[in-house]
Amino acid sequence: MKRYFYCIGLFLSYHFALPTAAMAYIGPGAGFAFMSSFFVLIAAGFITFFALLSWPLRAVVLFFKRRSIKQNSKARRVILVGFDGLDPKLCDAFMAKGKMPNLKRISETGSYRTLKTTTPAISPVAWSTFSTGVNPGKHRIFDFFTRDPHTYLPVLSSAAITTSKRTLKIGPVQIPIKKATASFLRKSVSVWTILGKKKIFSSVLRVPITFPPEKFYGTCLSAMCAPDILGTQGTYTVFSTRKPSEKNGSAGNYAPIKLIGNNFESVITGPAIEKYGTKKTLQLKINGTIDLKKSIVRLTVGTKTVELSVGKYSAWMPIVFKAGVRKKVQGIARFLLTEIAPDLCIYMTPINIDPEHPNLPISHPGYYAISASKLHGSFSTLGLAEDTWALDEGVIDEKAFLDQAYDIYEERKTLLMDNVRRGKDGFLAFVFDTSDRIQHMFFRYQSEDHPANQGKDTALHKDTIEQLYNKMDSLAGQIMECTNGKDLVMFVSDHGFTSFKYGVNLNSWLWKEGYLSLKAGAGLDGEWFSNVDWTKTRAYAYGLAGIFINTKGRERDGIVEIGKEKKALIAELKDKIESLSVDGNGMRPIRRVIAARGELKGPYVNDAPDLIIGYEEGYRASWNCAKGVITEQVIETNTRCWSGDHCVDPELVPGVFFSNWKMEDPEPALQDLAPTILDIFGIEKQKFHDGKVLPFVQPESKKIKPNH
Amino acid sequence: MPKIKVEKDLYEKMKDCAEIAGYSSPEEFAIHVLEKEVDLFENAENDPDVMERLKGLGYI
Q: Which residues of B touch A624 (CB under 8 A)?
């Protein structure tokens, strides 16, 4: 009996353990699916095989193509370093004082000129003209931002970030997929795209208005207008035991600190995401301990702990928000302990997109930012990275701002020098905006009567701008050390600089003169024209550049007819605004008013402000005017640290042009640089270019010795 | 990127128009014309985040 059961057990074990043949119907769908994937494999294999087989042929073609380019090229490589906002008057003064020996030497052995800027003289406009060689009427960037004519609300001029909604269909199931995409709004074609088509490699690093980056033969690291992780142009955070009203303004976030003995905790507010149809703001808890004896704070963010002492920035720290299963949003930020007792205050920079884990495209190719970060360490990726608002709102002081600005400068210098040393040919463009940001925040030290000096230090940082120019000059020297006469090296700025003492609120003036109407019963002070009756408004000032006529067919509630009526209104406004005086004392805040249709040419002029305002030195669009706030006052005194500017008549703020080669044109302009770069590489100026080719004389190959 | 086919004659005319108007290419010309036409059919959307995106811009 036992043996019988043993046999049955053995049979069952065999039956279940060993596979047997199964019968099933495999329909044509499964067959197709199998064959399709097989076909993909075959196709991939074939393409790889063909690519390998044709490689020698392609290499030969490329070799001859490059050889013919090299034969036609006048320079081994072209290096263009931009110092945003470097002013010719200040350069002259500091060169005369011996503070800029390297650029002085270049001016003697090569060339030095003022460089005609764009109308208007605003960085995104000017650098777009540099990139494309055309006037703003052809590249469509007229300001940092413009109005959406459908809503009258502001939109960035150069980039749009939208959430694309796609649906993935799997049989009857539809899965919605949302993806943040950034589109580039600058028009025309960049010089590096044209170079790339001829297989000339370009490195375009931190050049303004390159977010999101274009695809071309070369590398690009985005700059001005690249957002932070919250999607803003830079939102700082203050963690504090003190109430927000005392030490926090409109541009930052306030996060209360909860103290438990010497321990504390707080929360970092992250981006908002949409989940199951509802918006959710991501948060990250932080905590730490206070050591009053050592005057330090130990701060833990995620898995990292850092020791903070007053006035010293931490290194870049990863800020990781969990957004769901296997989903995270990653950024980087630096921390600064500003006070330890009696209140605890920690400042956090805007959360930059992490170059090692970018959630938006900040480089081309995409891995360029990742490799640069791995090679040189984390670096700021925010477009306007220096936190001017934190200084303006008293969250950090002048020293902390300078430390931050120069740390960012060092990061960029490392990247530039690496490219200068390793690059052998092609085009390299690199722009430093340190010079622009520091001048904006320290220009009040240049004039004793600046209204912003009241109640502030006027001695401690009075040489900041001189030191800044000296630093830029020293960098120029270091670059020259790595180049020779075969390299054409240019140092340029997009515009100069001047004082910003008073703001002009042209919206208030337009309202007082009856060109702009408020809604019945509405009061003043609403931001972004919230109180304006568009159906009765004929003109409005927007942003920093100028005035739009509320035109029928262009603006949603436009009332001014195109043609005679619009022309007459433009002429009337021009006359009145040019004769505007300050409180009747004869001082004219506006030097000239420029009709866009006469000055700018191209298919996008209709998108420009109809009147571009050329402010006199010392004046600019007021803070309220730029944000569409109508007030009783037309002239507003500027008392902010942001005390220098360039949004004035372009004739008053030309940029600078230095080159190691002699250049014979007496009046170069920013729009000449793109056609000139093409010409240096033996490529003809394009028909759509507005600029001319600058005539260079190639020097004998010799090194220029720098002074540090 | 999706592409649209046009007749060769039309393309030649577009090339001339683009050059006269100051476009960098007939493609840029075509995109601008299409953008303007599409814009007429698009409903204006009040994006609540639009002003938030300018937050932190030092100039304003």
A: none
